[in-house]
């Protein structure tokens, strides 16, 4: 009741553009870059991508995201990662839960892609873990933080897939039981190198199937 009264007196600002209008204003909601069906389950290119699939050797069997990493979606990711607006994680989880193919999540354990400890300390939270916990509540699935990342944190921006894969693969390990059917959760799917490194670590620890959901993915 108190929160509803406060919302009437001071309407919440849009998480993406900061204008009044709720957690996502009408303009930003209309501007979400939803991804159409008919894309490769691994790389996101229009299917069939066949032999040119850049992720054909990836250790995860399938990946999915509801939106492209652009416009409103990019603003929401920045709101969470750069501005610390953790409410954005629940909004992302809601959009994942509403659109994800049922067979992708069914029977899985949600495993957050681990951020680097230095960035976690700086932000006070891990963005993928926040999304995974919110998605766990909405989808009724267990969540695990069995993956850990250590070592240095070289910037990934501008690095190619092979370089990203080498950097991620040396830093990710499994601590605790590895789920038989794991569903990796991340904020943005870029080259897929980090997801691949996580999937390889999980399979080496005993996971039989590794799938992946992200809020947004880069294209092209």
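^ structure tokens above, recovered residues below v
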């Amino acid at each position: 009741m108190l929160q509803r009264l406060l919302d009437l007196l001071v309407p919440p600002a849009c998480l993406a553009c900061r204008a009044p209008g709720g957690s996502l204003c009408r303009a930003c909601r209309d501007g979400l870059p939803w991804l159409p069906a008919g894309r490769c389950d691994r790389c996101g290119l229009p299917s069939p991508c066949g032999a040119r699939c850049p992720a054909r050797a990836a250790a995860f069997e399938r990946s999915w995201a509801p939106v492209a990493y652009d416009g409103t979606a990019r603003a929401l990711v920045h709101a969470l990662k750069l501005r610390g607006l953790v409410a954005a994680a629940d909004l992302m989880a809601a959009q994942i839960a509403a659109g994800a193919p049922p067979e992708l999540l069914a029977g899985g354990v949600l495993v957050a892609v681990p951020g680097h400890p230095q960035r976690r300390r700086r932000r006070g939270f891990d963005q993928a873990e926040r999304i995974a916990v919110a998605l766990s509540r909405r989808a009724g699935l267990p969540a695990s933080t069995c993956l850990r990342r250590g070592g240095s944190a070289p910037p990934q921006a501008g690095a190619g897939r092979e370089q990203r894969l080498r950097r991620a693969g040396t830093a990710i390990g499994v601590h605790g039981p590895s789920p038989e059917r794991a569903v990796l959760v991340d904020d943005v799917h870029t080259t897929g190198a980090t997801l691949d490194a996580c999937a390889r670590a999980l399979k080496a620890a005993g996971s039989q199937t590794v799938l992946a959901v992200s809020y947004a993915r880069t294209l092209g």
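The first strand starts at residue 62 and ends at 64.
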